[in-house]
Amino acid sequence: MTGLFVTLEGGDGAGKSTQAELLEQWLHERGRSTLRTREPGGTPLGASIRELVLHGRGHIDARAEALLYAADRAQHIATVVRPALHAGTVVLQDRYVDSSIAYQGAGRELGGDEIRELSRWATRDLVPDLTVLLDLDVAEGRRRLDAARGRFDRLEAEAAAFHERVRRTYLELAASEPDRFLVVDATLERDAIAELIRARVDVALASRADAERDDAAALAPPEGER
User: Which of 3, 105, 213, 222 suits a disulfide with 101, CB 3.0-4.6 Å?
Assistant: First the structure.
């Protein structure tokens, strides 16, 4: 059985962690093994990189920041995500390539195409089966973060114009790949959002099962040779 790769994207305060937890509980009830992980920080190396890029002191050049995220991603995919997928696990990941395109490509204005190519190289072209984009107004996201913890990391602390570019790029990415993306209004009730995500994951799981049955049938010897 091949696993399913689901990524959750969106601006700060959109509720990615909450929805990942609810989705994981639902999948467990259906007997599926899961792995919840995140970028940056899904490996020991990634944890060090996360501390540098989000909480480190001093200026980090935009290109250096992009390369640090790519290094985290390369290690994470090679040592955590691919092995889990090969074992048939449903991987639920908080942020992936789309985050880098939005935050470094658009937010830092490095260019989305350049960041996409860097991440493709780092991951050996691993693309999610489904990407859930939790879309939220920038001001509302800031309000939620402030209410939850009252402090911001390096990216969260960027100006509103930065985060508007991020949001706009996310929506453009979703519009360009509607088969991969599910865009959800993050102001909906928590359980309503969860239901929308479960319905789309159900479709993805069924599609994967159908593909595996087709592959098995194609590999089976002809009836007279069995």
Answer: 105
**Token pair belonging to 87:** 């074992």
- Rounded CA-CA distance 155/33 in Å is 32
- Tokens describing residue 209: 């099962």
CA R_g for the chain: 18
CA 2 from chain centre, in angstroms, equals 19
CA dihedral 143, 145, 151, 157 (to 10 degrees): -80
- Per-domain residue ranges of the chain: 4-221
Does 3 show up as a binding residue in the annotation? no
What is 162-188 written as a DSSP string? HHHHHHHHHHHHHHH-TTTEEEEETTS
pLDDT in tens, 12-53: 999 999 999 999 999 999 999 999 999 999 999 999 999 999
Residue 13 marked as a ligand binder: yes
Q: In 14-84, where do the E strands start and end? A: 34-38
Domain 4-221 listed as CATH 3.40.50.300: yes
Q: pLDDT of 154-191, one tens digit each?
A: 999 999 999 999 999 999 999 999 999 999 999 999 99
Contact 169, 115 (CB under 8 A): no
Whether 46 has a binding-site annotation, put simply, is no
199 annotated ligand binder: no
Is the bond into 44 cis (omega within 30 degrees of 0)? no
10 labelled binding-site residue: yes
Q: Which of 7, 18, 39 is nearest to 173 (CA)?
A: 7
